[in-house]
């Protein structure tokens, strides 16, 4: 077929002619016209001319036919541990939940690292460090006549017998 790009061939007594589809030129419809206008693609996208249409490529952070819609990078939930994702153009930031840090809030902060507990308290790592201190129930001298023996959460009086002999 002598006509290209969807052109319709018409024969005549002197040969043939091609009726080209919209956007195509040339004696045999061999030249595809430029479908791109100067403002076809937005946000820095590159226009690629095709037969009867154009395609926009390469606008980072945007999608759609003319690169108009901003991509929401937070849709993929990149922030960990129930942290908040803040969407930007082709980037995101994470507002980390308490107790976490890092670009994706992936690092657990050890609140006990700074040794916040005093007086021999034992630190338990959590969002607000918790200090545990075992206090002997015998500290207040509750046993009047005898020795106090500390048992966690209680005390027992040990009676001393005195034999005057």
From TrEMBL:
Q: Where is the EGF-like domain positioned along the sequence?
A: 1-30, 32-68, 70-106, 108-132
Taxonomy, superkingdom: Eukaryota
Q: Which GO terms describe its molecular function?
A: calcium ion binding
Entry-linked PROSITE patterns: ASX_HYDROXYL, EGF_1, EGF_2, EGF_3
Q: Which SMART domains match?
A: EGF, EGF_CA
InterPro entries with a match to the protein in the record: EGF, EGF-like_Ca-bd_dom, EGF-like_CS, EGF-type_Asp/Asn_hydroxyl_site
Task: Answer yes or no on keyword Glycoprotein.
Answer: yes
Q: Mind telling me which Pfam families this protein's record contains?
A: EGF, hEGF
Question: Which pairs are disulfide-linked?
Answer: 20-29, 96-105
Per UniProt, which keywords does this protein have?
A: Disulfide bond, EGF-like domain, Glycoprotein, Repeat, Signal
State the name under which the record lists this protein.
Answer: EGF-like domain-containing protein
Native species of this protein? Didymodactylos carnosus
Q: What is this organism's lineage?
A: Eukaryota, Metazoa, Spiralia, Gnathifera, Rotifera
